[in-house]
Amino acid sequence: MTRIGTSDLSVFPLSLGGNVFGWTADRDASFAVLDAFVDGGGDFIDTADSYSAWIDGNSGGESETIIGAWLASRKPSDVVVATKVSQHPDFRGLAAGNVRRAAEASLGRLGVDAIDLYYAHFDDESTPLEETVGAFGALVADGLVRNIAVSNYTAERIREWIAISDRLGVARPVAIQPHYNLVHRNDVEETIIPVAEEFGLGLVPYYSLASGFLTGKYRSTDAEGQTSPRAGGAAKYATDAGLRIIDALEEIGSAHDASIAATALAWLRAQPTVVAPIASARTVEQVPDLLAGARLDLTTAEIATLNRVSEWTSASN
Predict the structure, then answer these.
(1) Other C-beta atoms within 10 Å of 290: how many?
(2) Of 79, 80, 49, 86, nearest to 64 (Cα)?
(3) Residue positions annotated with a catalytic role
(4) pLDDT at 89 (0 to 100)
(5) Which among 17, 111, 224, 284 would be 20 to 30 A from 40, CA to CA?
(6) pLDDT tens per residue across span 235-264
């Protein structure tokens, strides 16, 4: 178990991504994945109010609705649920009134009394940051949200958020959710991790497996014939440099009888301030590798090897 920043939340060091629920996983498949995750020791679920509004026929909130139905059906103990605001078609941006209404809508879909971890999904520079910070602080003060966090914010804006929080006397963020993995390291390591270390924030990285590339399934830049909607996003990493990372993951993983995916997640877990990488599964069969990634401890030499073979990312992203 790892603690999320300065919060009182201790979680299994792998967060199950809910972006596929209501998209590539229907209700029954989502329930099966959630059951397998919790049965395997998982307790940290990540979603957003906008998942999956990008699908024809969806309006946003489908993932939260499925998770809420699962929570009501299974009544699991000590499960931590994180969700986000700013991208739902009906609740865009981070104006104070919008944040409040979006949080209330998420609470209704999830069927919970309070959101454990509530993220500002994307920065909204059209709204004064002081207004947004005050709105999130009010949600905590009123008991609708237990902890707040930020996603896709720059280091400068995170610092500004914290300074405003202190000036207003409201809750600080406890976590940051950045795009971070073995093929996308540069900005996070140079700017975000130093802020997290300074203020005791926990990192909960998304795209932990680079849209599936770091599972080793996509070894060609040609995604034709792949059935996953993410194939195109994964295939773009299948360069010579990217494939050297896959080869290193495969070699290191074999020494632990672990998959490429589990090894990639273990590397991410070993990075400073990382609490729990986010990874999604659309089938039950994909869950064991994710759980294994939360339990695999790499040696210092193995981490150094993966750091070295992925250094190209610092110059390419």
Answers:
(1) 28
(2) 49
(3) 51
(4) 97
(5) 111
(6) 789 899 999 999 999 999 999 999 999 999
Max CA distance (Å), the chain:
55
Residues 6 or more apart from 224 whose CB is under 8 A from it? none
- Dist CA 61 CA 47 (whole Å): 9
Structure tokens belonging to residue 67: 């998770």
AA letter at 228: S
Q: Quick one: DSSP state of residue 2?
A: E
Here the tokens at position 112 are 């919970």
- Sequence-ordered strand ranges (E) for 159-217: 173-177, 202-203
How many other C-beta atoms lie within 10 A of the C-beta of residue 316?
12
- Which of the residues in the chain have pLDDT under 70? 220-233, 312-317
CB count in 10 Å sphere of residue 90: 14
How far apart, in Å, are the Cα atoms of 191 and each of 154, 291, 312?
A: 8, 29, 17
Q: Length of the chain, please?
A: 317
Residues 6+ apart with CB under 8 A from 98: 85, 91, 92
Within 13 Å of residue 312, how many CA atoms lie on the same side as its CB? Answer: 11
Six-digit token string for 284: 């039950």
